[in-house]
Amino acid sequence: MSASSLKNHQTLLNLPRIRDDFPILRREVRPGVPLIYLDSAATSQKPRQVLDAMDDYYRQSNANIHRGVHTLAEEATAAYERARGLVAQFINASSPQQVIFTRNTTESINLVAATWGRANLVAGDLIILTEMEHHSNLVPWQMLAVEKSLRLEFISVTGDGLLDLEEYGRLLSMEPKLVAFTHMSNVLGTINPAKDIIRMAHEAGAITLIDGAQSVPHFQVDVQDLDADFLAFSSHKMCGPTGIGALYGRRKLLDGMPPYMGGGDMIKRVQLRSFAPNSVPHKFEAGTPAIGEAIGFGAAVEYLISIGLESIAAHEQVIVEYALERLEEIPGVHVLGPTAKYRGGVTSFTLDGVHPHDIAQILDTDGIAIRAGHHCAQPLHDKYNIPASARASYYLYSDPNEVDRMVASLYKVKHTFGL
Amino acid sequence: MDDLYREVIIDRYKNPLYRGKLDPNDITFQDSNPLCGDQIQIDIRLDGAGRVSEAFFDGHGCAISQASADLLLESIQGKTLNEIKTLTKDDVLEMLGLELGPVRMKCALLSLKVLKAGVYGLGEASDDLTE
How near does any CA of chain A get to the CA of B118, in Å? Predict the structure, then answer.
């Protein structure tokens, strides 16, 4: 694909207008060096619509939520619960009560492990995970496995960067209680066939947890269509603020789970020696929550809906196809993961003779922000027998020109290292 | 970048003078940087007077981590363990001739952390050792 044919695809999104929504994209990293932000898989940038919503809340309506009867408390409560409704609508949950606000994807997964896991799993029970999990969907289960003497098995990643679904079928015959998997790998970019994975798990009598940190921000994730049991995701990767995320749960499962943290708001009534838990979602939201952040999260969801998830996904597909083509033409560059067909907007790669840290450092001098390291997926890097990789990731505001700038800078890296 | 990837850094990274292993040795220690996977092992032999007679490092990682290890190993040849214990972060940065942000600082200081943990005979390396 040439740069000129790429231009034809730009009709999908009004890129200049979208970029104008993100004030940070106008900044220079150093005088004369504009920012090229290719690290959205780590965290996305925030549009002014989100910044304004949070600013308005703190300037106009700041108060603690629930129970207060004054005007500000009413406004804050309404705005907080409205945000919950927007997030529920975004993933097509059948009711807002099925959306629990947490700090992030990690806390959502830990919540399931600590409540559903502790209450329902016993020694010898099996949990199926995959080799491409982020540490946040590995370590909580490792901790629970130690505590409860559980067994863990892993669906392998094939040479093409896909999950080995035949092996998954064999693992399911071992009668797992839970299958927890990433919807989209934060390293390989692989989009896993969540609907099939869930259907097969249900047929085997297991429930499922989807790590949606990389999927929910980028394409339509419909919990009813997927028949999802649990879905965990973070606001900050989808144009919202840090400090807030969500856990979606099937109502029957949430109702049966014990509370997570104890404290205010999660109780129906309290006596000196006992308490009765509140109903969902409040049962899982002890203490004053991140109110301003929840409101920002709601504004982010509204923003993404206004642009359209289908358009965003199509835009990212164009960018990632172009990035794969440009990266693979550089001698010594090896891109990890599958072909564009199975991939979201992530390209991780290595460059022969240069450590990813050095790549990222030299790109930074050109204002280009990429990530280097194991991206919290150390076992996956062990599998590929590499200590680290460099990762460029894309979002609705990414411009094909930025891919060109990265490629030019990668040639500079090679020159610096005499390659 | 001209600062960070000065010729000495690239040169030491590509053609280190003190890369290798010593077996037997008097002191050996290894550690890694969990954030980026940089890994360094340092082996030391001492002479009868308790001075470093030979010292080598092995491992993998970015140019900053490997070049700083090579420069550090060069600086301790002939030194006593007490002299090595006085080495600080500033000494390493001076050898590198660099100013670094907090993330790359960990790369640059990994070798010092490994060296001092080995010299002090510690079971585990701690960031406090580089202060």
Answer: 24
